[in-house]
């Protein structure tokens, strides 16, 4: 059964774009709790409505599965997205080994996508590639494994690599027991994260500290950003995120219903 595109409040999307520009936003990202590439034509419509606002960087966060498995279908979409200002495709991963990624993203299938080929394909359209890796216990959980990931990224000419540790969850699961159990089992221990940080500090060159505290390094000639999951910063001077939802609501935190602007 074909999924129906979400209905979009385009009037409020225009409000969100104007608000973002007035706040000095330089990067717009397509993301969500689902997979954005399920509705490729709608991505094109968003880009068309964003054109007049001239955001310098426009990114798409994706698991890459549809882009890889249905490459012929997405050929025209990727060309159009590039022409309309998209700059970066951020592919979500948990490891450089296909089997590790399969366990998380395609548990119902026997094999994972050909990630190196996807990266090469995206480069062929002129797009930059970021690998956004969740650092989890049993996956990327030490400097040794991280160095292997860095080698994979460099071999495939990946422009950016982001590492976001799985943090220890709240004491209560708040109705999301399955995800709470997984996070509890796979969050990085303090010593694991400490060892990774020490490796980046001692072996890498610190390039930049971003406004929300993430640190960008050059390690072995590869860009890597050590991110943090701390999106709630009540003492910050400004908002880290302006999040537009198709129903027209504009929020600044994902997890709190009260964090709403419109």
From TrEMBL:
Source organism superkingdom: Bacteria
MF terms in GO: catalytic activity; iron-sulfur cluster binding; metal ion binding
Keyword Iron-sulfur: yes
UniProt xrefs under PROSITE patterns: RADICAL_SAM (PS51918)
The keyword DNA-binding is assigned to this record: no
Alphabetic keyword roster: Iron, Iron-sulfur, Metal-binding, S-adenosyl-L-methionine
Span of domain Radical SAM core: 1-206
PANTHER family: PQQA PEPTIDE CYCLASE, RADICAL SAM DOMAIN PROTEIN
Name of the protein in question: Radical SAM core domain-containing protein
Organism of provenance: Candidatus Lloydbacteria bacterium RIFCSPHIGHO2_02_FULL_50_13
